[in-house]
Amino acid sequence: MLQLAAIIAERQGHGKQAPVIYVSGEESVQQIGNRADRMGIGTEDLYLYSSTEIEDIMGKIQNLSPLALIIDSIQTVYLNGVVGSPGGLTQVKECTSALLRFAKKTDIPVLLIGHVTKSGEIAGPRVLEHIVDVVLYVEGEKSSSHRLLRPVKNRFGSTDELGVFEMSQSGLQAVSNPSEIFLSEQHLESDVLAGLAVTVVMDGSRSFLIEIQALCVAGSSASKRHATGIQSSRAEMIIAVLMKQAGLALQENSIFLNVLRGVELTETAGDLAVAVAICSSFLECPVPNYVAFLGEIGLGGELRTVPRIEKRVNTVAKLGYQMCIVPKSAEKALASFGFEGMKIVGCKNLKEVINTVFRQNGRHFQEML
């Protein structure tokens, strides 16, 4: 938020100069100043103030007419005359309402920072989210330097957007190719890898390439099924279809599935990639790293099209993939888009996909069935 305040302050027009005010109830001005120095923020139009009393904050900034007011955080400020301690249900509600009235009256944008619970939701009463106009979540794993900026509520526009950033010494930096986050380093350097397939998932209006990994182990006394990042029921269904409709003898194999980088695969567009990864591991036939897979699998082994498939294929083409295997029903429509350097291959069912991908290893494939 300090970085955002600096950006707003630095991008003023040539008219009357106005500051951006950052109010902290948790840290001193010196602490925030040290952080600003580390991030290389040098603008003189960013004012820092440390206070926890709403009346004091609004009184101080009234005459400054700032471009924006930032409160860090809503759980640390309080209103005189309101029952409860800072961060309590009543205080949070009344403080937010007071700041809302202040914003509407003065036409000064107010940005609030809210604490989050262990489950990742904004701490305190839900009324906080009901009062404000926009709710944004900054998400990220402890072990990763990447952060996702996700809108949950937006009275001024769509929530189908997603910002992808990387945390660095100087602050958040935009990630130009988010798909690199979810692709393994080995895949970028190897021609072929067994038990690995690439698909495209959508998050809002953003599309990402992700890798599905599969490992089939034969000869265990009790076959196991374990899926990380994939719904267990969906994985079991795909395995059953492979056995029944494609003829793969997976009954005595333990199968382990994983979506790289801890991503949760919640849509059916990745069905085909899951099936191909399992086939690749079972047949010990690597999948070329220039091929991507899109499609939903039905119980009859047929391939079904998925929403916004043209945008998914476009993402694959931009990243230099040479072939994309899609459902036959979507092949003609996709051909009209003319993806440069990309071959669109339509398949009706899983058997056609297996013959297409593992054609060069056909003899080995027949021996394994």
Automatic annotation (TrEMBL):
InterPro entries according to UniProt: P-loop_NTPase, RecA_ATP-bd, Ribosomal_Su5_D2-typ_SF, Ribsml_uS5_D2-typ_fold_subgr
Coiled coil: none
A Pfam family it matches: ChlI
Molecular function, one GO term: ATP-dependent DNA damage sensor activity
Database matches in Gene3D superfamilies: 3.30.230.10, P-loop containing nucleotide triphosphate hydrolases (3.40.50.300)
GO biological process entries: recombinational repair
Stretches assigned to the RecA family profile domain: 1-116
Protein name, as recorded: RecA family profile 1 domain-containing protein
